[in-house]
TrEMBL record, chain A:
Role description: NDH-1 shuttles electrons from NADH, via FMN and iron-sulfur (Fe-S) centers, to quinones in the respiratory chain. The immediate electron acceptor for the enzyme in this species is believed to be a menaquinone. Couples the redox reaction to proton translocation (for every two electrons transferred, four hydrogen ions are translocated across the cytoplasmic membrane), and thus conserves the redox energy in a proton gradient.
Top-rank taxon: Bacteria
Gene name linked to the record: nuoN
Protein name: NADH-quinone oxidoreductase subunit N
Annotated InterPro entries: NADH-Q_OxRdtase_suN/2, ND/Mrp_TM
A single GO cellular-component term on record: plasma membrane
Family: Belongs to the complex I subunit 2 family.
Species in which this protein is naturally found: Streptomyces alanosinicus
Membrane topology: Multi-pass membrane protein
Enzyme class: translocase
UniProtKB/TrEMBL annotation, chain B:
Alphabetical UniProt keywords: Membrane, Transmembrane, Transmembrane helix
Designated name of the protein: NADH-quinone oxidoreductase subunit M
Domain NADH:quinone oxidoreductase/Mrp antiporter transmembrane: 148-433
Gene Ontology MF: a single term: ubiquinone binding
GO cellular component: endomembrane system; membrane
Lineage, broadest ranks: Bacteria, Bacillati, Actinomycetota, Actinomycetes, Kitasatosporales
Coiled coil residues, start to end: none
Residues passing through the membrane, by range: 12-31, 43-66, 99-118, 138-167, 179-200, 220-238, 259-281, 293-313, 325-345, 351-373, 400-421, 441-464, 485-503
Keyword Membrane: yes
Family of the protein in this entry: Belongs to the complex I subunit 4 family.
Length: 505, 524
């Protein structure tokens, strides 16, 4: 008699459509891994295209969810709480993650072909897709356990990806560095979550938010420590200072497409997790995490930009190093609106600025990496001085790189970069964080210096024999995609900036 | 003057802003068949002349169609939503304040393109040069035509990249450093300005300049206004440039190619002063009121400082560079403009706007002349030019010498030429500043400023004596006198200098109603 209700509460009905995007990515990953065993050596490139198609279809499956009202894995207790929610925030971040992974995959197709003997393709694609699946799951998670699982699913394959090149000492060293520091951060985060659980008795974010407001006086310190420790794990993923030291070596050691992937998708994982725990789970502790994140943002952008400024153009891998440090600086800008959300009356609007900025950053940063991948084919050292005179040999590529760099710097003709920065500034000014806005303003000028230096180099007279690059089809596709995105967004910034005006949750 | 359909006017204004942008893109593409010309270089330089010419014609038609009886009214307005999320609207329009600047910009850019057609700049490819020139034109014209704070900022930033490349690639000695100094100074200023603009926009709830001007600061508390004026003022002051934020200017001018110098002095500096008049005066009057005495003080220090620097450069044996000297004289002239604005009176602001235009005409001409001198003698160093007795330009190239003397005399503010009225009105304004500003302070500023005009006269005359006069030795090689294309490029500037000097009403009649309206708070 009572068996049916019990069964109903034990066996949940799953909304498969809602969970389709991460699931497809994971399933295609498994298919690729198995198919690798049966494919002859000559036809391995099928794997790459299968993965690209898988990521594209996962991104397409976001379309039926556009209403943003689905959720699944729910418990119907006194208050309904769900583990997986596909609201607008989730969809935008999933789009960003899957799109970013798709572009990184396009870069990888060429990269794997060039690097055939040293990178095992089956494993590579499996790892990339698993990581993407985890990254796509993360923004949808609405309980702390799913969140941490998603975080690990996104990062564990990434360690392996960084160290995937056989016989490359730098690569394995980078992977080890990345792994050790990341695991420490996750452990700290887990401890924080356990503290939060101890003081609230629930893992669901919305319930945590409710119960944190009336925590027992004795447990107050515990809850506070728990909140701070939880944030650390996510701050690590965004590569916020002082959790940033792994970035440059990891980016240089990893295959270039993996560095591109980490710079965009890895960051998206970090900041979407941060947003979820701060704004959704711990809003009542805004006076703790608000100032902490503001300080973190100021520190991150300053250290990142100062280090990027110090890169010498003639050093080996300086182009990738510069992109790595600049991505640390950009992470600082991404944190500003999240910090502002701690002060603002309307935190959702501030969060929207981060999302809008991240979308802009993803498109143009991947574009810059695509050009770096292209130049890196001819000049393995990928120094900034190798870009001298690129305009003379590949005018279109040079113009695109100049455009991407100016977008990152936030100067016209990179209109979208400028307005994305404007939304971040306005979030800070709106929240009364004037000092942070001023720090960011100074940083924008510092960053301009190195971006523009690089841009100016593209148009100098080339030194020595100009090397003409033939652009392979996948790279062309990636360049065209990012270029069209950048230009379209510059003409109609509303496409991404609208997230800064409306609530996403 | 002539009745033109409103939608035609709208189209013309939009064309003036967007046309150069499209032209810049077209310049990068290969020339279509039939327009290939003698060589790709010639074709693209001709393209530059054609586009800037078309823009000039459009600007002149706009000026003709402008309803001069209602100069305070925004005309040819377009208002389309662009980025609703940030409340950014493509709001264009011109009134009596922006129209003269718009025409000046179109004219100077056209003259520069014409000059470059006959004398292609040495350095990189003409293709990039023309594209950058047009991009620069689009940015400056947009600055004067837009009526939205964020769009203003966008236009303000748009000129940075082209100017940077113009200096860094086509410039002379020390160009890389000068270009960096230029862009870093102005960018640091403009990001601070952005914060101020955002503060105003967020607190007042709109970025629309017309709405904000009509509001006249009523919805902004005094403390917000003070902070906003400080932030925006710094950004504009760097661009103007106001002493002590001027130090990028002499380097940039010395290193820039002739055309770059002309546009920098003639147009880019005006963006700063225009911002003061268009944004700070009407939108945050209380905040501006707080800073007006300080602004005036910095302005007169700039006047004296600029003149003294010029005197030092003009001295015998100082190895003074003529371009550097004119740059410092710009600091002095812009000091008068700022003084006029700081008085917050119609007289002073009208004077400032007049001096703005006059400075654009005269200094543009001066930089053209010095550029021509450099082409002929290979140097702009005063000591090298003048040697012991003087360069004797009157003897070697009488027309060039005459023009240089004319421009110098106009620059020192001889009555009857354009330079006179603006400075006199600015000093007049300081004699009787706005009711609640300290009169004794402004009287002191006026006295110091008036002394500055004497110093200006002194160094300008020294320059004329050292460059134009002197004994001609028999065997001294004659310099090529003014070429036909140089006449074509310079005559409009000379003519307008005389016209504005003899008939100031033509300009003041345009600016005066608009200024009254701005100071009275949008509606009158």
């Amino acid at each position: 008699m009572s068996a049916q209700p019990v069964a109903e509460s034990l066996v949940q009905s799953v909304d498969w459509l809602a969970v389709a995007p991460p699931t497809i990515a994971a399933a295609v990953g498994l298919v690729v891994l198995v198919a690798d065993l049966f494919l002859p050596e000559a036809r391995k490139n099928v794997l790459g295209w299968t993965s690209v198609a898988g990521l594209a279809s996962a991104a397409l499956l976001l379309l039926p969810l556009l209403d943003g009202d689905r959720s699944t894995f729910c418990v119907n207790g006194a208050t309904r709480a769900c583990s997986y929610t596909a609201d607008h925030f989730t969809l935008v971040i999933q789009f960003l993650v899957l799109g970013g992974a798709l572009l990184a995959a396009l870069l990888s197709v060429t990269n794997l072909k060039d690097d055939e003997r040293r990178v095992p393709p089956g494993e590579f694609w499996f790892l990339l897709l698993s990581s993407a699946a985890g990254a796509a799951l993360l923004p949808a998670s609405r309980d702390l356990a799913t969140l941490i699982v998603a975080l690990e699913v996104a990062s564990l394959p990434a360690f392996a990806l960084v160290g995937i090149r056989h016989g490359d000492k730098r690569s394995s060293e980078a992977a080890l560095k990345f792994f050790l520091s990341s695991v420490t951060a996750t452990a700290v985060s887990l401890m924080g979550i356990s503290f939060v659980y101890a003081s609230t008795g629930t893992l669901y974010l919305t319930q945590v938010a409710q119960r944190l407001t009336h925590v027992d006086g004795q447990l107050h310190t515990l809850a506070q420590v728990g909140v701070v420790l939880t944030l650390i794990g996510f701050a690590f993923k965004t590569a916020a200072v002082p959790f940033h030291f792994w970035v440059p070596d990891t980016y240089v050691g990893a295959p270039l497409p993996v560095a591109a992937y980490l710079s965009v998708v890895g960051k998206a994982v970090g900041f979407s997790g941060l947003i979820l725990v701060t704004v959704v789970a711990f809003p009542s502790y805004a006076d703790v995490w608000g100032p902490a994140l503001a300080a973190l943002a100021a520190l991150t952008m300053t250290v990142g930009n100062a280090a990027a400024l110090r890169q010498q153009a003639t050093r080996a891998y300086s182009a990738v190093r510069l992109l790595a440090w600049s991505s640390v600086g950009q992470a600082g800008y991404l944190l500003v609106p999240i910090a502002a959300a701690g002060y603002a009356k309307d935190p959702q609007k501030a969060i929207g600025s981060t999302v809008a900025y991240a979308l802009m950053y993803a498109a143009v940063n991947l574009g810059a990496f695509a050009v770096a991948a292209l130049v890196g084919r001819g000049r393995a050292l990928n120094r900034i001085s190798d870009y001298r005179g690129l305009y003379a040999t590949n005018p279109l590529t040079a113009l695109l790189l100049a455009f991407f760099l100016l977008c990152l710097a936030g100067l016209p003709p990179g209109v979208i970069g400028l307005f994305a920065k404007v939304t971040v500034f306005s979030a800070a000014v709106d929240a009364g964080l004037g000092w942070l806005a001023v720090v960011m303003a100074v940083n924008v000028v510092i960053a301009l210096f190195y971006y523009l230096q690089w841009t100016a180099l593209l148009f100098r007279a080339p030194e020595g024999e100009p090397a003409r690059h033939r652009v392979p089809a996948p790279l062309t596709a990636a360049l065209a995609l990012t270029g069209v995105l950048g230009v379209a967004l510059s003409g109609a910034p509303q496409l991404v900036l609208r997230f800064a005006a409306t609530g996403l949750f | 003057m002539i009745d033109i359909n409103e939608s035609v006017m709208q189209f013309l204004l939009a064309f003036v802003v967007v046309g150069p942008l499209l032209g810049a893109v077209a310049a990068l593409l290969p020339a279509p068949p039939g327009l290939k010309g003698k060589s790709p270089e010639q074709a693209v330089l001709r393209h530059g002349v054609t586009v800037t010419g078309a823009i000039l014609v459009a600007a002149l038609v706009l000026a003709l169609g402008f309803d001069h009886h209602h100069a305070s009214k925004m005309q040819a307005t377009t208002d389309i939503s662009w980025i609703p999320a940030l409340d950014v609207r493509i709001h264009l329009g011109i009134d009596g304040i922006s129209l003269p600047l718009l025409v000046l910009t179109a004219l100077l850019t056209f003259l520069c393109a014409l000059y470059s057609y006959f004398k292609p700049p040495a350095g990189g490819s003409p293709k990039a040069f023309v594209a950058l020139l047009l991009l620069l034109e689009s940015g400056t014209l947009a600055t004067f035509a837009v009526l939205d704070l964020l769009l203003f900022f966008l236009a303000f930033e748009m000129v940075l990249i082209p100017m940077y490349f113009l200096i860094a690639r086509w410039g002379g000695e020390g160009r890389t450093r000068a270009a960096w100094k230029f862009i870093l100074f102005t960018l640091l200023g403009s990001v601070v300005m952005l914060l101020g603009l955002l503060l105003i926009g967020i607190k007042a709830g709109t970025f629309d300049m017309v709405a904000l001007a009509t509001d006249n600061g009523r919805s902004l508390s005094t403390s917000v206004q003070v902070i906003a004026v400080l932030a925006i003022g710094i950004g504009l002051a760097v661009k103007t440039p106001m002493w002590p934020l001027h130090s990028w200017l002499p380097d940039a001018h010395t290193a820039a190619p002739t055309v770059g110098s002309v546009l920098l002095a003639g147009v880019l500096l005006k963006m700063g002063t225009y911002g003061f008049v268009r944004i700070l005066l009407p939108i945050a009057p209380h905040g501006f009121h707080t800073f007006a005495p300080y602004l005036a003080a910095f302005a007169v220090v700039g006047i004296i400082y600029g003149s003294l620097a010029c005197l030092a450069l003009a001295r015998h044996g100082a190895k003074g560079d003529l371009k550097r000297l004119i740059a410092y004289s710009s600091v002095g002239h812009m000091g008068f403009v700022l003084l006029g604005i700081a008085t917050m009176t119609p007289t002073g602001v009208n004077g400032a706007l007049f001096a703005n235009i006059a400075h654009g005409l005269i200094t543009g001409l001066l930089f053209f002349l010095v550029g021509a001198l450099k082409d002929r003698t290979g140097s702009t160093d005063l000591d090298t030019l003048a040697e012991e007795t003087g360069a004797a330009l009157y003897g070697k190239a009488p027309r060039l010498g005459g023009l240089l003397a004319f421009a110098a005399v106009a620059s020192l503010g001889l009555p009857g030429l354009a330079g006179f009225w603006g400075e006199m009105l600015a000093l007049f304004g300081a004699f009787k500043p706005a009711a609640d500003l300290s009169r004794p302070a402004f009287l002191t500023f006026m006295a110091i400023g008036a002394f500055g005009t004497l110093l200006t006269a002194a160094y300008m005359l020294i320059v004329v004596r050292r460059v134009c006069m002197g004994g001609v030795e028999q065997e001294a090689p004659k310099l090529a006198d003014v070429h036909g294309y140089e006449f074509a490029a310079w005559t409009p500037l000379v003519a307008l200098t005389v016209v504005a000097g003899l008939w100031p009403r033509a300009l003041l009649g345009l600016t005066d109603p608009a200024v009254h309206q701005l100071l009275a708070g949008g509606t009158r």
